[in-house]
């Protein structure tokens, strides 16, 4: 690993000399992970310090020219006014300006994103869902690239969106709190971007109930009817494309819709019917209109509502625990009391037993995902402890894996399979 570490160090030095401090810091960090070369830590701290400093604004270079023009013409006062405002016009022909405060604020968000999602949003670890949403809306409005033209604003907005996406979901937040920020980030990187994998395939990975969504800045967000309405009527037009459901099925449905659309357009062109363009336009919008109607019906109807949840959510607030024969006991789940008691009474009925078997299966899957994350976190800590001495290694190896232990206690098979192994 020492040779690879030296390569990363040399690459980082090259970026540092070019003034690309963020990239330099990234490769210095990679070098340290591979092998603790002398002097690399100090160079990384230097790169981080330079990256956190706001770049010199063009207005600061224009001040001498402004004062010079002031001494020769009456238009100098206007030039000084522009310089004093602190606004910076980016080079490259863009007319949008930004202030040094906007850039320094964006860099601060990027710096906090390396430490904690809670610090990014500026909230406590016990913040409620309402507080999380309030903090996100405030920051999103401030750092959205449409509102903030600073070079680092887009990265800051992505960090804010990632923090909100993680903390606003109960399952993702629980896993994040359990394994910590660094392990969560490592799992996300190993699993790949775009919500396809990583973090044990659950919560952060985009499966087990998180498949519905559209891609926004690399994160998966739940689609509401309002999202569909805005995407459709706020300029998306006929070229609008959104990904719903699983990846393969959504692409097949999209291809089928496009093929049907082409066939219909060919029929209209052959028939030469009057008023064709309006019908074609309507047909182009039809898939989105249908999805909008289906989304409204799924949100408003009760037939698609889940019977139970492992966590309190929506109308599922009444707590129960498994108790029937043949089911692992005392697994908590939540139901809508009025509809559940009416449909699944008495507890000795076959339907009730089937529900508890489903609860058991889902809870086992939930524990398995958490166990995978705990193993990955422990493995990562042991790897990092190689340079920390014997005590650090012992502490890492002694890390408990409560989900794996519960899996062993509840679900170990007759062959004695150990989930902790």
Automatic annotation (TrEMBL):
Keywords, sorted A to Z: Endoplasmic reticulum, Membrane, TPR repeat, Transmembrane, Transmembrane helix
GO BP term, pick one: cellular response to misfolded protein
InterPro entries the UniProt entry points to: DnaJ_domain, DnaJ_domain_CS, DnaJ_subfamily_B/C, DUF1977_DnaJ-like, J_dom_sf, TPR_rpt
Any Gene Ontology CC annotation: endoplasmic reticulum membrane
Membrane topology: Single-pass membrane protein
Segments annotated as TPR repeats: 5-38
Record's keyword annotation contains Ubl conjugation: no
Subcellular compartments: Endoplasmic reticulum membrane
Annotated J domain residues: 116-180
Protein name: J domain-containing protein
Gene Ontology molecular function, alphabetical: Hsp70 protein binding
PANTHER family named in the record: AT29763P-RELATED
């Amino acid at each position: 690993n020492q040779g690879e570490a030296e390569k990363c160090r040399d690459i980082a030095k090259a970026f540092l000399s070019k003034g690309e401090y963020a990239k330099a810091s990234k490769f210095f960090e990679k070098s340290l992970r591979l092998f603790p070369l002398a002097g690399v830590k100090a160079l990384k701290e230097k790169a981080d310090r330079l990256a956190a400093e706001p770049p010199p604004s063009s207005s600061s270079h224009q001040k001498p020219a402004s004062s010079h023009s002031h001494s020769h013409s009456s238009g100098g006062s206007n030039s000084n006014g522009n310089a004093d405002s602190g606004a910076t016009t980016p080079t490259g022909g863009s007319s949008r300006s930004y202030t040094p405060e906007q850039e320094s604020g964006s860099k601060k968000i990027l710096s906090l994103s390396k430490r904690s999602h809670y610090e990014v949003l500026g909230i406590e670890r016990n913040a409620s869902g309402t507080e999380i949403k309030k903090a996100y809306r405030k920051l999103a409005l401030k750092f959205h690239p449409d509102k903030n033209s600073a070079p680092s604003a887009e990265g800051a907005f992505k960090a804010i969106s990632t923090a909100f996406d993680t903390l606003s979901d109960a399952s993702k937040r629980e896993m994040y709190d359990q394994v910590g920020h660094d392990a969560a980030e490592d799992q996300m990187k190993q699993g790949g971007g775009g919500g396809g994998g990583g973090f044990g395939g659950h919560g952060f990975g985009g499966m087990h109930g998180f498949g519905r969504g559209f891609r926004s800045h690399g994160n998966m967000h739940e689609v509401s009817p309002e999202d569909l309405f805005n995407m459709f009527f706020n300029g998306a037009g006929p070229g609008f494309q959104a990904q719903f459901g699983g990846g393969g099925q959504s692409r097949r449905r999209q291809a089928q819709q496009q093929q049907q659309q082409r066939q219909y357009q060919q029929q209209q062109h052959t028939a030469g019917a009057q008023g064709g363009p309006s019908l074609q336009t309507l047909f182009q919008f039809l898939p989105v209109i249908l999805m909008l109607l289906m989304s409204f019906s799924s949100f408003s109807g009760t037939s698609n509502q889940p019977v139970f949840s492992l966590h309190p959510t929506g109308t599922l607030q009444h707590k129960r625990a498994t108790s029937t024969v043949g089911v692992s006991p005392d697994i908590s789940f939540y139901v809508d009391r009025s509809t559940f008691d009416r449909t699944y009474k008495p507890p000795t009925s076959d339907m009730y037993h089937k529900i508890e078997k489903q609860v058991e299966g889902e809870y086992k899957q939930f524990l398995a995902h958490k166990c995978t994350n705990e193993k990955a976190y422990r493995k990562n800590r042991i790897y990092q402890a190689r340079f920390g001495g014997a005590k650090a290694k012992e502490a890492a190896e002694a890390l408990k894996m409560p989900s794996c232990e519960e899996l062993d206690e509840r679900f170990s098979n007759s062959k004695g399979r150990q989930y902790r192994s």
